Amino acid sequence: MMSKIILIRNSYPSDISIEQYTLISVTLDGFRKVTKPRKYELYDIFCALLYVLKTGCQWRSLPHDYPKWSNVYSHFI
């Protein structure tokens, strides 16, 4: 089931559109760790990862608009 995504943060050039995200969301959700419920939308976590990849910034340098860096990092290690 696809939940509606509402942006409450600033947009960055590295973000993908909601339409692009819906195409890959099923695949991303299939990799879900079932140890605990998510605190943040997977869209925001994925966009934060794209920001790190595009800018080459350190994890701890993620803008505060994104979820906490350690949460993003733990999803993609």
Break the fold down into its secondary structure elements and pairings.
Elements: H1 18-30, H2 42-55, H3 69-75
Please, could you describe this protein's structure?
This protein is mainly alpha-helical. It has a domain at 40-77. 44% of the residues lie in helices and 0% in strands. The radius of gyration is 12 Å and the shape is globular. The N and C termini lie far apart (25 Å).
Q: Average pLDDT value?
A: 83
Beta-strand content: under 5%
Unreliable parts:
none
* Number of beta-strand segments: 0
Radius of gyration: 12 Å
What is the end-to-end distance?
Answer: 25 Å
Please state the structural category: mainly alpha
Q: Characterize the main sheet.
A: none
**What helical percentage do the residues reach?**
40-55%
Q: How many H/I helical runs?
A: 3
Tell me, briefly, the overall form: globular
In short:
The protein has 77 residues and is mainly alpha-helical.
Keywords:
single chain, 77 residues, mainly alpha, 3 helices, globular
